From TrEMBL:
It comes from the Eukaryota. This is Bromodomain containing 8. The lineage of its organism: Eukaryota, Metazoa, Chordata, Craniata, Vertebrata. GO terms for cellular component: NuA4 histone acetyltransferase complex.
Amino acid sequence: MANGVGKHKLLVIGPTEPWSVREKLCLATSVMKSGDQNWVSVSRAIKPFAEPGRPPDWFSQKHCASKYSELLEATEAPK
């Protein structure tokens, strides 16, 4: 590998574009209704709310779980 290709691989869990506020709210609402262990239901429930031009796997179970985890980390706990 003289040219360095293949030395470093990026691990991409899901699409890299940012989620819209609407998509985040739909995700949070769906998790509130279905729970954070039922990603099949969460994913299925929010698919109709995707922004135009999103890839078909935008709301995959794994990506929804990953995004929800990010949202929880970015949220401050109420005092």
